[in-house]
Predict the structure.
Amino acid sequence: MKPLLSCLALAAALAAPPAARGAYPDRPVTMIVPFAAGGPTDVIARIVAENMSRTLGQQVVIENVAGAGGTTGITRAAQAAPDGYTIAMGHMGTHGAAPALYPDLKYDPVKDFAPIGLAAGTPIVIVARKDFPAKDLKEFLAYVKANSDKLNEAHAGVGSVSFTSCALFNSLAGARPTRVTYRGTGPAMNDLVSGQVDYMCDQIVNLVPQIQAGTIKAYAVALPERSPALPDVPTTKEAGLPEFQVSAWNAVFAPRGTPPEILKKLSDALVKAVEDPGTSKRLLDLGGDLSNKAARTPDGLGKLVESEVARWSKVLKAAAPPAK
Ligand code: ASP
């Protein structure tokens, strides 16, 4: 009799609507990071997840699902149950550039996601190994043009921010380096520091500590104004390549169909994290740009993604040479 009763109780519990099972979240939330640990997407995700965990009263656990320029992890997120327990840290590549570069992309950045909010803007910096034979951007441009068949440029896979940014840079510089693919710019950075690759165009976040320590060289930041986190690094305009203006960003998404009350909890927790004095200081010190408040809301982020997909499809059709 007893086992039958508990079976019935279990069946009743499983049949109950989610709200009746306890308030969301009643278990850890997984945040998919579509790149290897140690890169900008991972660093930003870990900073905001730590604060969101406190607000939500449940751990936000990072799961690194790397591959195919971030599209493997984001496909997994798009196909996850829309119950608020799987979310993802996407970026300008996965939710902006990828559709133009992957004709068979398994997700639509606009239609398959419920936007949660922007975590941070991330300016792009042109960096090279510390003994690269060029003292400034002008010399760097001349060198990469003259020697590009001998140079290796590191990126995080077709469609990633680093891939897209350096595709633009290479086309402006007239360079055709060997493009070396990594599972994220964390591992790419290790090889740049040890001098196994020559240069990279990446999100500022994990470059700042290395530039400050002198383990890599920075030639320019692709912003209209200098970054407060790197006051000694000139802008591309100051350094002689004003046409190179790229900006990237990282933002949090849930699968489409996630209930509105869950999205609201996640979005409120994200805003609280980004606006928390301790968290925002960590992001700002790493060069994060927290000025786009509008995109911190689901609606604002939805608009940003739409405009980024349109923008990159135009730019990339014209500029991106195929990956070697
Ligand atoms: N910054 C990387 C990119 O190029 C990825 C990463 O965050 O590791 O898209």
Notes: DSSP finds twelve helices and nine strands in the chain.
